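Notebook, bench 3.
Goal today: get a predicted structure for Amino acid permease from Loigolactobacillus bifermentans DSM 20003 so we can plan the truncation constructs. The sequence was checked against the plasmid map this morning, with no discrepancies at the termini. Length recorded as 534 residues. Pasting the sequence as submitted so the record is complete.
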Amino acid sequence: MHTHKKISLFQLVMLALGSLIGSGWLFGSWEAAKLAGPAAILSWIIGGLIIGSIAYNYIEIGTMFPESGGMSKYAQYSHGSFLGFIAAWANWVSLITIIPIEAVATVQYMSSWPWAWARWTHGFLSHGTITTAGLFVVFLIIIIFTLLNYWSVAILTHFTSLISIFKIGMPLLTVILLTASGFHPANYGTSWHSFFPYGTAPVLTATSVAGIIFSFDAFQTAINMGSEIAHPKRNIGLGITLSLLISGVIYILLQSTFITTMPAASLAHGWHGLNFTSPFADLAILLGIHWLSVLLYMDAFVSPFGTGVSFVASTARALYAMAGNRHLPKALGQLNLKYGTPRIAMVVSAVLSMVMVSLFRSWSLLATVLSTATLVAYLTGPVTAVSLRHIGQNLIRPIRLKHLHVIAPISFILASLAIYWAMWPTTIQVIGIILLGLPIYLYYEWRMQFAETKQAFRASWWLIGYLVFITVMSYIGGQPFNGRNWIHYPWDQLVIAIVSYGFYRWGVRSAIITADFKKAQVLNQQTSGKLEDD
């Protein structure tokens, strides 16, 4: 094994931050403030808590099975091939959307470059949608992302560590300079109504719709790199915790800065009336800091670029893992012997990313699809973590979480609420995309003569029932979430919390011991030995 190429804790945190701080910070503060006013600051705290509680479950599983593309395999260990396939497919749909969303963000900022020599870039965007000329630039960026990952993990980590330092520095510089130019704490308001100008529901909506869940989503980079991390027993949990905390502090500071530096004149028509193309760069120009706006236009190229590069690795590993689950062609699971990277999977991911961006040509559309698909995949995490405590009591747990039985159901309920906050009809569209994978699953089950299909379906009815419930609830729920208002806000939140808890309990009781579970036991024994050696 290439021990010299193992990823250190510093490199892991930089890689995760390189994934976390992408286009979300460039658009998120403006999108959230436009929806919820000064209360948008709470949206970031809620979003961070939701993703943090979900990540908590994966720390135990990730150290039990430190393997490449692990996020796409865990559900299969506890509930068989069908649940494993749905979780992996939903996760992969979200990953394959991240590569084009970052490329779109780069091109969108390029299209508003203010310099005379850059007029040729202005045709890349029309009414918030990428044009055909812009699409070719997006394709070119996706190809560059892929090539940077194509050769080795070593190139990837050197490149992203460098970019990540710039990516952390740039938001902090923005916070300091904008605050020094104008600080109006009165913008937070002096009453309940001025802090929540549009009520409390938009604070929840912003969490899913303004790209906040999406901005915190990338903690799984640390999980998917499992077998390539030095001292995984210590570094997986620490890497996730540090990267989520650092990015959370940066996001909250940015949102607060956006709220407190907004000139009173710009708020004449309320927070809904804020109309920016490149929010922080526009704000810098408004406050007369032109050189900062130039840096921000540069960063709008670098930040999404770093995230896109990191996610080519995660996406390819997810495909590689699905091939290992025997539900995709074997060729996708081949590692290049010299570089240890799944090259065929990388090329396929790049092509499908191009198809995805050709269908959904705007940042906001891609962001909403992505958040919901991610959350559907994450729902299986808490259920798997607790299920493995029941059916896999003898498994070696390098990290045994103390409060798993409390945090797991809470994280399941929070993820359910966040799916609901994504609003109708996004819910049904994303669940539809996830169900598109069913024919592929059934084809491979047919090739294996439906050996364990019946058993796999029996273990997965809870998730199928859950997806039907959340879709119906999204349709009949509160008007602030685009529902028919048959169940009013905030009672809709209570219904989702109670019923989701029921599905969580059903999910835990549905765990089964399969051939995949037995393979997982072997992997657990082998890797735990290596962990102790480490």
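The radius of gyration is 22 Å. The CA atoms of residues 83 and 460 lie 6 Å apart.
Flagging this for group meeting.
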